[in-house]
Amino acid sequence: LFAFRKTERTISMMMKYRTSLIRLRAHGRHLNQHHWSALHSCAYNIVVACTEKERVIGRNARLPWSLKEDREWFLQQTEGGVIVCGRNCFEEELILGSLGGIGGRDYVVITSNPDKLMQQHPGLKAAASLEQGMHIASTYYKSKQVWIGGGERIYREALGGGGARALYLTLVHNGGDGRPPRLDLADGAAYARFPAWADRFPREVYRAGPRVDPGG
């Protein structure tokens, strides 16, 4: 593995290196200064993996790739924190958890029926909106770092909420283990995308990932 830190005005200058993933950490500007809410008063990080060009984050409400390194990085970074995410993302975590566990972090799940979800998962906290979810996170988990984990609508609200401290963005180039995602956006599947983020976050770029042999 290799890692380096570099600040650039554009991300395209970083793409000459062949890697399985590029991770960007960008510090956010506080937007919507007049929109005072739980999204503004509670600091949070946004963490996401998406394809480089189309910003795809999901296909039919599931992750369209397997990235072992990024999964391990995600678990390490969010250890001891609280993840605020939608129901589909939480269910995806339950599936992945069967392989590696989701313990070590708390969840606040945004869903249209929070009571039903909390009945299904005793001890879980759920809310009907992101603002309510952030209020729960800031009330019950005051000392914990808050991470926004998707999906598309929640990412969009969080990016414009004003409390975003940092964006941890993994750009997926080949889907993991050397295999391309092979995503056909015209195949009739429901694709979710990460919103455009460059206007909200200035570039402070960190990059880490395994080297890929030429032609690999």
TrEMBL record:
<comment type="similarity">
    <text>Belongs to the dihydrofolate reductase family.</text>
</comment>
<dbReference type="GO" id="GO:0009165">
    <property type="term" value="P:nucleotide biosynthetic process"/>
</dbReference>
<comment type="pathway">
    <text>Cofactor biosynthesis; tetrahydrofolate biosynthesis; 5,6,7,8-tetrahydrofolate from 7,8-dihydrofolate: step 1/1.</text>
</comment>
<dbReference type="GO" id="GO:0046655">
    <property type="term" value="P:folic acid metabolic process"/>
</dbReference>
<keyword id="KW-0554">One-carbon metabolism</keyword>
<keyword id="KW-0808">Transferase</keyword>
<dbReference type="GO" id="GO:0046452">
    <property type="term" value="P:dihydrofolate metabolic process"/>
</dbReference>
<dbReference type="InterPro" id="IPR017925">
    <property type="entry name" value="DHFR_CS"/>
</dbReference>
<dbReference type="GO" id="GO:0006730">
    <property type="term" value="P:one-carbon metabolic process"/>
</dbReference>
<keyword id="KW-0545">Nucleotide biosynthesis</keyword>
<feature type="domain" description="DHFR">
    <location>
        <begin position="43"/>
        <end position="216"/>
    </location>
</feature>
<keyword id="KW-0489">Methyltransferase</keyword>
<dbReference type="InterPro" id="IPR024072">
    <property type="entry name" value="DHFR-like_dom_sf"/>
</dbReference>
<dbReference type="GO" id="GO:0004146">
    <property type="term" value="F:dihydrofolate reductase activity"/>
</dbReference>
<dbReference type="GO" id="GO:0005739">
    <property type="term" value="C:mitochondrion"/>
</dbReference>
<protein>
    <recommendedName>
        <fullName>Bifunctional dihydrofolate reductase-thymidylate synthase</fullName>
        <ecNumber>1.5.1.3</ecNumber>
        <ecNumber>2.1.1.45</ecNumber>
    </recommendedName>
</protein>
<keyword id="KW-0521">NADP</keyword>
<dbReference type="GO" id="GO:0050661">
    <property type="term" value="F:NADP binding"/>
</dbReference>
<dbReference type="GO" id="GO:0004799">
    <property type="term" value="F:thymidylate synthase activity"/>
</dbReference>
<dbReference type="GO" id="GO:0032259">
    <property type="term" value="P:methylation"/>
</dbReference>
<dbReference type="Pfam" id="PF00186">
    <property type="entry name" value="DHFR_1"/>
</dbReference>
<comment type="function">
    <text>Bifunctional enzyme. Involved in de novo dTMP biosynthesis. Key enzyme in folate metabolism. Catalyzes an essential reaction for de novo glycine and purine synthesis, DNA precursor synthesis, and for the conversion of dUMP to dTMP.</text>
</comment>
<dbReference type="InterPro" id="IPR001796">
    <property type="entry name" value="DHFR_dom"/>
</dbReference>
<dbReference type="GO" id="GO:0046654">
    <property type="term" value="P:tetrahydrofolate biosynthetic process"/>
</dbReference>
<keyword id="KW-0560">Oxidoreductase</keyword>
<dbReference type="InterPro" id="IPR012259">
    <property type="entry name" value="DHFR"/>
</dbReference>
